[in-house]
Amino acid sequence: MATADAVFTGSIPAIYEEYLVPLLFEPYAEDIAQRLADVRTGVVLELAAGTGAVTRALLKALAPAVRIIATDLNEAMLRQGETHANGASVTWQQADAQKLPFEDATVDAVVCQFGVMFMPDKLLAYREALRVLRPGGRYVFNVWGSLQDNEMSDVVTRAVASVFPQDPPRFFARTPFGYHDADVIRHELASAGFADIEIETVDKVSRAPSAAHVALGLCKGTPLRGEIEARAAARLDEVTDVAAEALTARFGASAFDNCMRAKVATAYRR
Predict the structure, then answer these.
(1) pTM
(2) Beta strand residue intervals within the chain, DSSP E
(3) Which of 79, 117, 129, 222 is the most exposed place for a label (fewest CB within 10 A)?
(4) H or E element in which residue 165 lies
(5) Domain count along the chain
(6) How many whole angstroms separate alpha carbon 170 and alpha carbon 230?
(7) In whole numbers, what is the pLDDT of the chain averaged over residues?
(8) Is the domain of 42 the same as that of 75?
(9) What's the burial of 87, exposed, middle or buried (CB within 10 Å: 0-12/13-18/19+)?
């Protein structure tokens, strides 16, 4: 999983937490945590926890007796997450979702928010989630819908591409918004051994503070930054400004509604 698309280092975790978590991740974190609110005891394993948006939502939604193990491949994201979600019921641990360091049948639920897309071998990762679940346990995760169904990110993608027309950065289209076919997801979950698979579309709306705020978050707080810097490191601020101008042209410079679409999957171990 140590590919450029999964690298969240340097200043990215802090920017991600400040600019993107409230905008993109908190609305869906609350949704996914409520889907596990009936877990009253045992262990919930979180994959790709990032800076802890879901972890914080789980702390509010779950009974105090439930132990949460929040994992992520990126140490820098874990350290950022620890500063925002800690307590006796939460353990933070570095882990690769494709090779989980946990015994068979030891957790009651697995949850992952917008992380499956970053896993190179998704079938292997699904099998690992199945392995650590107890019989009857569930895996709940979400993925973004298509890039076209998430217009704010689409506008930024096209704006950045206009700066590098011969070699456009494709991070958003390739990874965050590149795994949304419900039939594919259902087939791969079934192939891994999951049963009772349900996938639903969930739309959310958040409030973007300004075009400049969004551009900074998406261009400097995600691995898109690495793609920009690989092409022209000295032009990061310029490219961010181009993205802000495109967002302003579409939504205006001040606060605007950000309409989002995601798919939420629930699958069980028999």
Answers:
(1) 0.96
(2) 43-47, 67-72, 90-94, 107-113, 133-144, 195-208, 256-268
(3) 79
(4) none
(5) 2
(6) 13
(7) 96
(8) yes
(9) exposed
